[in-house]
Design a protein that fits this description.
The protein is of the alpha+beta class. 26% of the residues lie in helices and 22% in strands. The longest helix has 22 residues, at 2-23.
Length: 200
């Protein structure tokens, strides 16, 4: 009699456990959807903390956008935390570059400490806080329209503040990087550009 009860209790436990297992979704090696993962904050040094941590600096990748000038620049340079640079211009598509050496460490560490522009702040004279170069000197419309502007936003589309005069070094480095990687053949940065076939 005791064995019968024990067998019945074991059967009930097996049924209950299998019912719980059936209710839980099977992973089967399927990756977790990106939206269900805890978001991380990626800085130049890598992922730090989760979304509950206060954001004290920009989240990589950073987007550097150069517009204006007599040539009508419309360039997008995406700088990732590992020093990879993706370049798109009117004539260049799919170029990938890699920063290396001391310049990479120096530039990424400077950029990762920049202050984000608060949405409640009034933009500074000469353009948005994340602008490298600002506006051209006041004058006729033609001169003003020829200004070359580089705006920097982080992964969450928040502008970076480069309005402080003490940030001239990082503004210069950003300007030099954009100018170099958007050349037909970059002089200082190692890049690869896919060759496109022109059909007749």
């Amino acid at each position: 009699m005791g064995r019968t009860r024990l067998a019945a209790a074991m059967s009930a436990l097996v049924v209950a456990l299998s019912g719980c297992a059936a209710g839980a979704p099977a992973n089967n090696g399927t990756p977790t959807p990106i939206d269900s993962r805890l978001p991380t904050q990626t800085f130049a040094g890598g992922a730090i903390g989760d979304a509950t941590d206060p954001i004290i600096g920009p989240v990589f990748p950073l987007t550097l956008r150069r517009t204006g000038g007599v040539a009508g620049y419309d360039d997008t340079v995406i700088l990732q935390a590992d020093g990879t640079v993706l370049v798109t211009t009117r004539s260049i598509h799919g170029r990938e570059c890699q920063l290396s050496g001391a310049q990479q460490k120096h530039l990424l560490s400077l950029l990762s400490t920049l202050r984000l522009v608060d949405a409640t702040e009034t933009p500074t004279a000469g353009g948005l806080g994340g602008t490298v170069g600002g506006s051209a000197p006041e004058g006729d419309d033609e001169t003003t329209n020829d200004a070359i502007v580089i705006d920097i936003t982080d992964h969450k589309l928040r502008p970076l503040d480069l309005s402080d005069p003490s940030l001239g070094e990082v503004a210069g480095l950003v300007g030099s990087l954009v100018a170099d990687v958007t050349l037909s053949t970059p002089a200082a940065t190692e890049c690869t550009t896919p060759t496109s076939t022109v059909s007749n």
